[in-house]
Design brief:
The protein is mainly beta and 94 residues long. It is 14% helix and 37% strand. The protein has two helices and four strands; from the N terminus they run βαβαββ. The protein has a four-stranded mixed β-sheet, covered by helices on one side. It is globular and about 40 Å long. It starts with 20 loop residues before the first strand and ends with a strand.
């Protein structure tokens, strides 16, 4: 019953929205670095990336480009799921 959602079938790097977003959410994306690279054109200057991840990989976190900063990191508890889940909130340093 959401009336302000629309679906777009496109490769994310090709998608050019009419208005930039307050937030860009990713789930099951390749890597954080790839997400930031391919989606960099989507959020407003004050926007954020919300990356849903399973286990956090120190190497993957270390590869986040220097122009970005992990503002918050939350461990998520999903009912009836024993695996790790995390939410990273990432913003531009600019």
């Amino acid at each position: 019953k959401l009336n302000n959602i629309s679906s777009v079938e496109s490769r994310v790097e090709d998608y050019q929205p009419q208005a930039l977003f307050d937030g860009v959410l990713s789930r099951a994306f390749a890597s954080i670095s790839d997400m930031l690279s391919w989606c960099a054109h989507l959020p407003k200057a004050t926007g954020a990336f919300y990356a849903l991840k399973g286990q956090l990989d120190g190497n993957e976190l270390a590869e986040i480009p220097a122009e970005y900063c992990v503002q918050q990191q939350h461990q998520l508890l999903v009912p009836q799921l024993q695996e790790q889940r995390h939410l990273l909130i990432i913003t531009s340093r600019n």
